[in-house]
Write a structure and sequence with these properties.
- By secondary structure, this protein is α/β, with parallel strands linked by helices.
- The protein folds into 2 domains: 2-177 and 354-366, Glycogen Phosphorylase B (Rossmann fold, 3-Layer(aba) Sandwich), CATH 3.40.50.2000; 194-353, Glycogen Phosphorylase B (Rossmann fold, 3-Layer(aba) Sandwich), CATH 3.40.50.
- The protein is built from 14 helices and 13 strands.
- Strands 3-2-1-4-5-6-7 form a 7-stranded parallel sheet, sandwiched between helices. Strands 10-9-8-11-12-13 form a 6-stranded parallel sheet, sandwiched between helices.
- This is Glycosyltransferase family 1 protein.
- Pfam families: Glyco_trans_1_4, Glyco_transf_4.
- Residues 19-182 form the Glycosyltransferase subfamily 4-like N-terminal domain.
- GO terms for molecular function: glycosyltransferase activity.
- It comes from Arachnia propionica.
Length: 371
C-alpha cells in the first residue's frame, strides 16, 4: 500500500527534536513496519534525520512568508501543491496530521483519508500566536473532517472539539504512544536520585514550578531538564536565584533520548493550572516515555494524567510547587517504593501505550489494511 503522510504545519519539522516530530516519525515507522511504502509531504523537513529513516522519501514544500496573512496564504498554496504532487505520485491512503488551512484529504476525496487531530489548533493560534482568517481555518477543518474516513483525536477533549464538525461515529480517541523498543528501563545512577523533566521549555509545561519545587525539597536530589525553548534563560536565572543546581541538557534528537534518560530515578510532568479541563487536551508523550523507561512518575492531576497514572504514578495539584516537592521527596526517601513503581510503569507502557497498538487501532478504525 502506498501511503502519503502529510504535514503542512510549518512549526513541525519531520526530523526535529520536539514531541510533534517524534509523533510523526513513530507513526511513519509503524506504517513502514507493516509493509507500506510511505512518502512524506511536508512544509518543513528538518535536519535531525535518524539512521533508520535515512531512506524515507520526503517531499518538501518550504514556506518563506513571515507576515501572518501571507503565511496563512502560503499554507493554503502548499496544501494545493501537495495535493497535485500526490495526484502525480499516486497513493492508496492519505494520512494527514491536522494543520491550519490544509485541505489535502478533502481535495483527494477519492483516496481514503485519515485525519489525525492533536490539538484545537484554531483556538491555539488565536491565544498564543495570530490567526488572521479564522473563517478559512474553520472551513478547511470542516471539509477535512467531513471527507476523512476516520478522524483520530489524541484525547477526549480534542474529540469534543472536533465533534461539531464531523459525525460522532467517525471521530475516535486514540492517545499517543511510545516506542517500546527505543525507550527501555535503565538502572538508576549512583548517588543522589536524578529527577528528570522532558519537554519544550514553554509556560504550559510548568517547569518554573518544578524549579521552585526543587528549592522546597527536604531530600537531596538532582534535577535534570531535557529540552529547550523560550523560557530557558528565565529558568536558568530562576534556578540561580533560588540556589538550585539544574542539569540543563538542551534540545536533543529523539534517538538520543535513551542516553539522556539513563540514570534517572523519577520522571516529572508538572503541568500548571490553565483554567479548565478543556485546556488540558494533551496526550503527553513525555509521560509515556517515562513509563517505558520504567520511571515512577510525579505529575499534576490534570487532563488524562489521572487515568494514565492511576496505578503507576503519584498525582499532585497543578501549580503547587510545595506539593510537588513533597511528592518527589517521598519517592526519593523510599527506594523500595520506587522499585515497585518502576516495574509497574514498564508493564503499563507495554500493555497500554505502545505505538504499534496505537497505529493498529487507527488503521482498524479507518477500515484500512496496510501492507
Amino acid at each position: 500500500m502506498r501511503v502519503a503522510y502529510v504535514s503542512v504545519d510549518p512549526g513541525i519539522p519531520v526530523f526535529g527534536t520536539k514531541g510533534a516530530s517524534v509523533h510523526v516519525q513513530e507513526v511513519v515507522r509503524e506504517l513502514l513496519a507493516r509493509g507500506c511504502t510511505v512518502t512524506v509531504y511536508t512544509t518543513r523537513r528538518g535536519r535531525e534525520v535518524p539512521a533508520d529513516l535515512a531512506d524515507l522519501q520526503v517531499v518538501e514544500f518550504p514556506l518563506d512568508a513571515k507576515e501572518p496573512a501571507a503565511r496563512e496564504q502560503a499554507q493554503i498554496e502548499a496544501s494545493r501543491s501537495i495535493t497535485e504532487r500526490i495526484r502525480q505520485d499516486g497513493a492508496d491512503l492519505v494520512y494527514e496530521r491536522y494543520s491550519l488551512f490544509s485541505s489535502v484529504i478533502a481535495d483527494l476525496a477519492d483516496i481514503p483519508g485519515i485525519l489525525e487531530v492533536n490539538a484545537p489548533l484554531i483556538e491555539e493560534q488565536q491565544q498564543h500566536r495570530h490567526l488572521v482568517d479564522e473563517e478559512a481555518a474553520e472551513r478547511a477543518l470542516t471539509r477535512q473532517a467531513t471527507v476523512a474516513r476516520a478522524v483520530i483525536c489524541v484525547s477526549d477533549p480534542v474529540r469534543s472539539w472536533v465533534l461539531g464538525r464531523v459525525p460522532a461515529a467517525r471521530a475516535h480517541t486514540v492517545p499517543n504512544g511510545v516506542s517500546l523498543s527505543r525507550i527501555r528501563p535503565q538502572a538508576e545512577a549512583d548517588g543522589d536520585p536524578v529527577v528528570t523533566f522532558v519537554g519544550t521549555l514553554k509556560p504550559w509545561h510548568g517547569v518554573a514550578d518544578l524549579v521552585r519545587a526543587a528549592a522546597h525539597a527536604s531530600q537531596t536530589w538532582q534535577l535534570r531538564i531535557i529540552g529547550d525553548g523560550p523560557e530557558r534563560e528565565a529558568l536558568e536565572r530562576q534556578a540561580a536565584e533560588l540556589g538550585v543546581k539544574v542539569d540543563f541538557r538542551g534540545a536533543i534528537a529523539p534517538s538520543e533520548m535513551p542516553d539522556h534518560l539513563a540514570g534517572s530515578a523519577i520522571g516529572v510532568a508538572p503541568y500548571p493550572d490553565l483554567g479548565g479541563s478543556d485546556s488540558q487536551y494533551f496526550s503527553p508523550l513525555k509521560v509515556y516515555e517515562y513509563l517505558a523507561a520504567g520511571l515512577p512518575v510525579v505529575a499534576s492531576s490534570v487532563g488524562q494524567l489521572p487515568e494514565i497514572l492511576h496505578d503507576c504514578g503519584v498525582l499532585v495539584p497543578p501549580s503547587a510547587p510545595a506539593a510537588l516537592a513533597a511528592a518527589v521527596d517521598e519517592l526519593v526517601a523510599d527506594p523500595a517504593r520506587r522499585r515497585e513503581l518502576r516495574a509497574t510503569a514498564r508493564r503499563v507502557a507495554e500493555e497500554r501505550h505502545g505505538w504499534e497498538a496505537a497505529v493498529s487501532r487507527i488503521l482498524d478504525l479507518a477500515g484500512v489494511a496496510c501492507g
